[in-house]
Amino acid sequence: MAENDDSSRGPLSRGGVAPQPLFAVAAVLLGSFLANFDSRLTTIGLPDLRGAFSLSFDEGAWLSTAGIGSQIFIAPAVAWLATVFGLRRVLGIPSLVYAAVSLIIPFVHDYPTLLALSVVHGLLLGTFVPATLMIVFRNLPIRWWLPAISIYSIRVGFALDTSSSLVGFYVDHLGWQWLYWQSVLIAPLMGLMVYWGTPNEPVNRALLRDADWGGMLLLGAGVSMIYAGLDQGNRLDWLGSGTVMALIIAGAVLVAGFLVNESLVRQPWAHVNVLFSRNIGLGLVLILLYTLTSLSNASLVPNFLATIALLRPEQSGLLLLTYGALPMFVLVPLSIWLLRHFDTRTVVVVGFACFAAANLWGTQLSHDWAREDFAGIVLLQAIGQSLTLLPLIITLLSNSDPSRATSFAAYIQIMRLGGAEIGVALMGTWLRVREQIHSFYLGQNLGVGDVDVVRMLKQLADHFAAHGAGSAQARAVGTLAGLVQREANVLAYIDGFWLCFWVAMAALGVVALVTRAPPGPFTPAPFGFARMLLRRCGVPLT
Q1: Do 476 and 457 touch, CB atoms closer than 8 A?
Q2: What are φ and ψ of residue 163, in 5° steps?
Q3: Per-residue pLDDT tens for 414-437?
Q4: Among 135, 140, 104, 139, which residue's Cα sits nearest to residue 121?
Q5: Is the CB of residue 503 less than 8 Å from the CB of residue 289?
Q6: I need a labelling partner for 328 at 20 to 30 A (CA). Which of 173, 210, 480, 485 fits?
C-alpha cells in the first residue's frame, strides 16, 4: 500500500485532522455497528415486538417498513449535510436525540405515536453510517484508512451473524425493551467519541445558499416509497394491491422528477454523471449483486432453521455466531493484508467464489439437515463477506472523483440500504412463489385412491388410533398435508440457494469487466518475488 505521504488526501478528504483520531475510529465502529444491529434486531425481534406492543401482523409489518424506509429517505443526503454543517452537528447531535427516542419507544402504547416515533428513530439512525467514511477520510492519516474502512464494511456480515443470538439474549434474560435500550447506552458514547475525534468545522454558507433541497427530497422520498411498496408487496400480493402499486408508481415518478431536477438546477446535488465512469457503474452493480448473493446467509439459513427445524432465533444464532461472526476476527486482518499486496479484483473474485461454493453446497439440503449441517456453509459465507464488500468499497473509492464526493456518496447509500432491503423483499416473494409451485406439483402426485397414499394414510391413522380412533383419520390427512408442505418448503429453499449461486456467478462475470484503478493511496504494494521482478522490469511500486 502506498503510504509515503500522510498529507496527501483522497476522496471525501476536505477538512483538518482531528487531534484525537482514535476517537474517530471508535465513532466509526459504534455508529456503523449500531445502525446495522438496530435494523437487524428490530427485524428479527419483530414477532416479540408485535406481542409486546399488542400489534396485529399488518401493524407490525408497517412498523418495520416505516423504520427502514425513513433510513433510506435521509441516508443519501447525509454526506452533503456533513460537508455543509460539519460532522459534529450531523453525527453528534442526532446520536443524543436518537438515545432519547430509543428510551421512550418501549413505553408507548398508542400505535400512531409508535409509528411516528419509529419514523423519527429511522431518520436519526440513517445519519450514522453515511457519515462514517467522512470521519475516516477527513480525520485519519492514510495508513489508518484501510483498517477503518474494514470496520465500516465488515459490520454488515457481523451484524447478520450475531443479531439472532443477541435478540434471544435480550428477550430471554433482559427483556424485549433492550432491543431499543441498548442504543440508550451506546449512542451517547458515540456522540462523545465524535466530539473528541472530529474537528470543529464552521457551517459552509456558500454551499448552503446553493442547496439543492428539491433534489434531495425527490430522490429520498422516491426511493423510500419504492422500498415501501416492495417491502409490502409480498404481504399484499403485489399487483393485486392498490397500496403497493401506488407506492411503486409514485416513487418512480419522484425519481424521474429527481433526474429532471438534476439536469436543470444550477448546482445539482447528485448529478447522474458520477455514474458514467465504467468502474464506478460496475462497482455499484457488484455491491447490488453482493447484497443479493449474501441473502443466503441473511435469510435462507436462519429462515430454514426456523421454518423446517423449528428453532428459535437464539438457537440458530449460535451457529451464525460461532461459524460466521467469530471467524471474522481473523478474516478481517487477512482481508486488509491481501488488499495491501494484491489487486482488489483478485480479492473480490475469491470472495464471490466462496459465496458461490457456499450456495452450491446449500442446494444439497434436505429436511433432515440440522443446525450443525450448515457449519461449513456459514463459514464459507463468512469468508465471502470478509473478502467481498471491503475490496468493492476500495474499488469504488479508488475510481471516484473527489470533486463529486457527495454525489458519489448519495448513490452508494441508495445501493447500500435500498439494494439490501429490496433484496430481502424479493427473496421472500421468491420463496413464497416457489413453495406454492412445489406444493402444486407434489400434490399432483398424491392422487385420491393411489396405493402409496392409501398405505401412508393407513399407517398414520393406525399410529393416531391409540389417541382416539374418531380423529385418527383426520389427523392422518393433516399430517400428510404437513409433510407435503415441509417438502415444498425444502425445495423452495433449494431454489433460493440456486438463485444466490447464479447471482454469485454473474458477479464473477462482472468483475472480469472491471479495469485497473488509477494509482492512489489504495494502490497495493507487491511483495517478495513479485516485488523483485517488478523492480527489475523498471515498474514503479507506488
Answers
A1: yes
A2: -65, -35
A3: 887 777 777 877 888 899 889 989
A4: 104
A5: yes
A6: 173
CA angle 540, 533, 353 (to 5 degrees): 90
Least confident of 315-319, 490-494, 510-514: 315-319
Cell of 506: 454473474
What is the C-alpha to C-alpha distance for residues 323 and 378, in angstroms, rounded to an integer?
6
pLDDT of residue 407: 73
Strand, helix or coil at 427? Answer: helix
* DSSP-based three-state secondary structure for 109: coil
| Single-letter amino acid code for the residue at 533 | L
The region that residue 539 occupies, defined by phi over 0 for left and psi between -120 and 50 for alpha, beta otherwise, is: beta
Cα separations in angstroms, 481 against 108, 312, 484, 486, 488: 42, 24, 5, 9, 11
How many other C-beta atoms are found inside a 10 Å radius of the C-beta of residue 152?
A: 22
Please give the grid coordinates belonging to residue 335.
482481508
Distances in whole angstroms, Cα of residue 70 to Cα of each of 102, 118, 358, 497: 15, 9, 33, 30
Give per-residue pLDDT as tens, 210-256: 888 999 999 999 999 998 998 888 888 888 889 999 999 999 999 99
Helix segments in 201-277, DSSP class H: 205-209, 213-236, 242-264
Question: CA 374, 379, 382: angle at the middle one, nearest 5?
Answer: 125
Nearest-angstrom CA–CA distance, 350 and 67:
35
Whether the per-residue pLDDT at 352 is higher than 90: the answer is yes
Q: What is the Cα–Cα distance from 128 to 31, expressed in whole angstroms?
A: 5
Please give the Cα distance from 183 to 195 (Å, whole number).
18
Highest-confidence range of 183-197, 352-366, 469-483, by mean pLDDT? Answer: 352-366
459 vs 254, higher pLDDT: 254
**Consecutive H or E run containing 117:** helix 111-125
Predicted pLDDT at 27: 75
